[in-house]
Design brief:
Layout: E1 24-26, E2 31-33, E3 36-38, E4 42-44, E5 47-49, E6 52-54, E7 58-60, E8 65-67, E9 70-72, E10 76-78, E11 81-83, E12 86-88, E13 91-94, E14 99-101, E15 104-106, E16 108-111, E17 116-118, E18 121-123
Length: 127
């Protein structure tokens, strides 16, 4: 009646909450004068005056801007502005609101109609 041993007990994890992935977030109207480096996925909605190293994915919002060299270990989606060279081990997507002035090294580059790009591109496996 209360269990005959035929059914195995269902394992329940110690925490029932699903943990969300942590992100590095730079809020709109925020300004960083210096270098940024993180292992977390990054969302830049403010301004960075310095180098940016992201050992994950990067998303620059429409009001986000980076003035300096950028390194991304995975993919990058740009809706804002980068003024500086971009090295990305994955794909780079420039949306219609994006502006990128600098050389790009990536595995693939996707330019949406309306995006501004001025620089050289090398699409190859980035090591």
């Amino acid at each position: 009646m209360f269990g005959n041993g035929d059914k195995k007990a269902e394992e329940v994890p110690a925490t029932s909450k699903t943990q969300e992935a942590q992100k590095f977030l730079l809020a709109e109207d925020s300004v960083v004068n210096g270098d940024i480096s993180t292992n977390e996925p990054a969302v830049i909605n403010g301004t960075v005056e310095g180098s940016v190293t992201i050992e994950n994915t990067l998303n620059i919002g429409a009001k986000g801007a980076i003035r300096g060299p950028v390194y991304v270990a995975l993919d990058a989606k740009i809706d804002g502005v980068i003024t500086g060279d971009l090295t990305c081990k994955g794909a780079v997507v420039l949306s219609a609101t994006a502006s990128l002035t600098g050389d790009v090294q990536c595995t693939s580059l996707i330019l949406t109609k309306g995006a501004y790009f001025c620089g050289k591109v090398v699409c190859t496996e980035v090591k």
